[in-house]
């Protein structure tokens, strides 16, 4: 049975041996949290659930997931990981995370934290997971630098992100729709070239491009893969 604890940022900073950390607020509401699962439901059925499972099969050791949202990845983690920390800055989203009654003895904690300010000591994790998060963080470079910092030597980043299309014509449409989409989708940028940012901070070891079927076309192009520092 997984144990589940919700920490405040202060407790987390203390646990992680970092004092003086203070997180800033991220926009997000109870309304968005209530709508998130129904909004992605069709996409989950049309391939996203199996993509999550395949990606997370690569998780090892001490695992940190950033922007964990409502916890859609939780059921897909393999048995045998050492610890699982789910970081999510928006409380109504974090409140929906259910660890459930998976078998195994992995300790699981839910922590309120932004990707840009991870309240953990250097080299704390063997795997960091980011699914559909780097589109929304305010500062991608800073978030990737934080992921690098908390990853132990040899650790890896598992990513699954929607991105700007590699088709120039479609990419230009995403550029045009980026502002209204972001206004509607709590700051999510449909035209981010996230692969380029990951490639600047990490060495990408495995990469697949797929389509997020069952979702609006602006967020359909996906990149899925693994990267090491
Ligand atoms: C599209 S949802 C993805 C949720 C989940 N990772 C999934 O795969 O379903 C984006 C998540 O990123 C979170 N988020 C927003 N700003 C963030 C930040 N600066 N750092 C970390 N997470 C952030 C949001 O609260 C939301 O839960």
Describe the structure.
It is a single chain. The chain has 229 residues and is an alpha/beta fold. The protein contains six helices and eight strands; from the N terminus they run βααββαββαβααββ. It has helices at 9-15, 30-56, 91-94, 140-150, 168-184, 194-201; strands at 3-7, 62-66, 83-87, 107-111, 125-131, 151-162, 203-211, 221-228. Helix 4 runs parallel beside helix 6. The longest helix has 27 residues, at 30-56. The radius of gyration is 17 Å and the shape is globular. It starts with a strand and ends with a strand. The relative contact order is 0.17. Residues 1-24 have low confidence and may be disordered.
Summarize the helix and strand pattern as letters: EHHEEHEEHEHHEE
Q: Provide mean pLDDT, rounded.
A: 89
> Which range best describes the helical content: under 10%, 10-25%, 25-40%, 40-55%, 55-70% or over 70%?
25-40%
Count of beta strands: 8
Tally of individual helices: 6
List the uncertain runs: 1-24
Largest beta-sheet characterization: 8 strands, mixed
How would the global form be characterised?
globular
Strand order, main sheet: write it out: 1-4-3-2-5-6-8-7
The proportion of residues in beta strands is 15-25%
How far the N terminus sits from the C terminus, by CA atoms, comes to 33 Å
Which ligands, by name, code or SMILES, are bound?
Answer: S-adenosylmethionine
Q: For the CA atoms, what is the radius of gyration?
A: 17 Å
Structural class: alpha/beta
């Amino acid at each position: 049975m997984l144990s589940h604890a919700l920490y405040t940022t202060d407790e987390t900073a203390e646990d992680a041996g970092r004092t003086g950390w203070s997180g800033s607020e991220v926009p997000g509401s109870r309304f968005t949290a209530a709508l998130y699962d129904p909004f992605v439901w069709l996409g989950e059925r049309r391939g996203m659930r199996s993509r999550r499972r395949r990606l997370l099969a690569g998780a090892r050791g001490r695992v940190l997931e950033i922007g964990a949202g409502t916890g859609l990845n939780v059921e897909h983690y393999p048995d045998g990981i050492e610890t699982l920390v789910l970081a999510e800055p928006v409380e109504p989203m974090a409140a929906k995370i259910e660890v459930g009654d998976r078998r195994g003895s992995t300790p699981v904690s839910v922590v309120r934290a932004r990707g840009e300010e991870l309240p953990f000591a250097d080299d704390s994790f063997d795997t960091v997971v980011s699914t559909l998060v780097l589109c929304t963080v305010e500062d991608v470079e800073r978030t990737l630098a934080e992921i690098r910092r908390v990853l132990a030597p040899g650790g890896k980043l598992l990513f699954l992100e929607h991105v700007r299309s590699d088709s120039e014509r479609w990419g230009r449409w995403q550029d045009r729709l980026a502002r209204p989409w972001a206004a509607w989708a709590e700051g999510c940028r449909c035209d981010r070239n996230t692969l380029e940012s990951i490639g600047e901070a990490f060495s990408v070891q495995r990469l697949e491009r797929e389509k997020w079927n069952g979702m609006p076309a602006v967020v359909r192009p996906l990149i899925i893969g693994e990267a090491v520092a």
